[in-house]
Amino acid sequence: KRNRGELDLHIEKLNVTFKGKSNGEIIQIQLNAAKSYIDQSILSGKREIILVHGVGSGRLKEELHKLLKSYYGIKYEQADSRNYGDGATMVHLKG
């Protein structure tokens, strides 16, 4: 759908150099990517996006949810587990 976008935040998918970086640095890269994707999606009028963060230790998901809470009027929930398992968050940008 035109009104929906998806971003895979797995570090290998972000086209960045991450060799030799700490987990904290990697999470920061992922959060920066998520933030610019959210901002672009809002500007381009998307209604909802899916952020694929994977399961892992849960740290990225936790930080991502903190980031989402800093936006006014954005709601989010776990994305459809049939498609993503527990590894993705569905973000509603517009009611």
Q: SSE order, as H and E?
A: EHEHEHE
By helix and strand content, what is the structural category? Answer: alpha+beta
Whole-number radius of gyration?
Answer: 13 Å
What is the number of E strands? Answer: 4
SS summary, helix count: 3
- Overall pLDDT level: 94
The 3D shape can be described as globular
- Give the CA-CA distance, first to last residue: 17 Å
- Can you list the strand order of the major beta sheet? 1-2-4-3
Residue runs with pLDDT of under 50 for 5 or more positions: none
Main sheet summary: 4 strands, mixed
- Strand portion, in percent? 15-25%
Short description:
This protein is α+β, with helices and mostly antiparallel strands. The protein has helices spanning 23-43, 59-69, 81-84; strands at 4-8, 48-52, 75-78, 88-92.
Overview of the molecule:
With 95 residues, the chain is of the alpha+beta class. 38% of the residues lie in helices and 20% in strands. It has a four-stranded mixed sheet, covered by helices on one side. α1 runs parallel beside α2. The two termini are 17 Å apart. 18% of the residues are buried. The model has no long low-confidence stretch (mean pLDDT 94).
Task: Tag the structure with descriptive keywords.
95 residues; alpha+beta; four-stranded mixed sheet
Describe the SSE topology.
Layout: E1 4-8, H1 23-43, E2 48-52, H2 59-69, E3 75-78, H3 81-84, E4 88-92
Parallel strand pairs: 1-2
Antiparallel strand pairs: 2-4, 3-4
Helix pairs in contact: 1-2
